Amino acid sequence: MNIIKFLDDFTTSNILDGKSSRRDIFGTFGDLGKKAAIAAVPFGLAALSSKKAYAQSMDADPVGALQLALTLEYLEDEFYDLALQSGVLPTGRPETVYMQISKHEQAHVDFLIAGLEGAGVTPVEKPTFDFTAGGAFDPFNENGAGQDTAYAQLLALAQAFEDTGVRAYKGQAGNLLGSPFLTAALQIHSVEARHASEIRRLRGLKGWITNNERGTGMPDATQPVYNGEENVTHGGVDVTTLGNGEAFTMEASTEAYDEPLSGDDAVAIASLFIVEE
């Protein structure tokens, strides 16, 4: 299956439109029925068994959201694994941080696969990744970019991937409402946010995003990860008008709220590093 085509079928707009392609792709899921599949989830969250919960789950497509999440977790898992094998990472804290994040990403992959299989769904296959993005980067110093350059790119890509993950999980939350998957996704989402902050600290940056700034040394290609983060209207309120003093400046206000990332944008970002087959 073409992974780009698969991901496109599960962008936010397509999920909300309810296109029949979802049913074609998940023939097995359709045969089981959403109610039966969600009831089979082995996350220990089956307590959500009321008629109301099931009725809510019929209005969304949690499977599409989880397949998109799994693809992003595949990307992160392989990236950190290759980083640790590359010899680019300095010993000490950088290597220790990458080792720990690598363990988390592998756990996330296993967790999502178990949940999808438990729901009677075949997890999307792991794509073939190209972390050079067609030669634009050399994060593992395979083409002689130099140790310092490779390490800088290694950090920049890690930041972009983690920030994408945080926003993508938030963007898919609406598609998980009323399903047992929501709690599981939120458990991963908060850890991805910790990863993002830790990588930023390694780069000597603040642990949060200001406006839509990608940060010093981030390639132009990563800007879509941060577009929209400058929003200051939440719940119909301009949050820069709240309170008094410097605490509610434009910069502080954008830092205080993270924005969701649509499925379309998450797919576009991931596709930069996926080899079409």
Give a structural overview:
The structure is a single chain. The protein has 277 residues and is mostly helical. It has a single domain (3-218, 261-275), classed as Ferritin (Up-down Bundle), CATH 1.20.1260. It is built from 12 helices and 4 strands; from the N terminus they run H-H-H-H-H-H-H-H-E-H-H-E-E-H-H-E. Strand 2 and strand 3 (237-238) form a beta hairpin. The model is unreliable at 1-60 (pLDDT under 50). This is Ferritin-like domain-containing protein. InterPro entries: Ferritin-like_SF. Pfam families: Ferritin_2.
Strand tally is 4
Helix content class: 55-70%
End-to-end distance: 8 Å
Q: Quick check: average pLDDT?
A: 78
- Strand arrangement, largest sheet? 1-4
Structure classification = mainly alpha
The poorly predicted ranges are 1-60
Q: Briefly, what CATH class? A: Mainly Alpha
CATH topology: Ferritin
Largest sheet: 2 strands, antiparallel
Beta-strand portion reads under 5%
How many structural domains can be distinguished in the coordinates? 1
The total count of helices amounts to 12
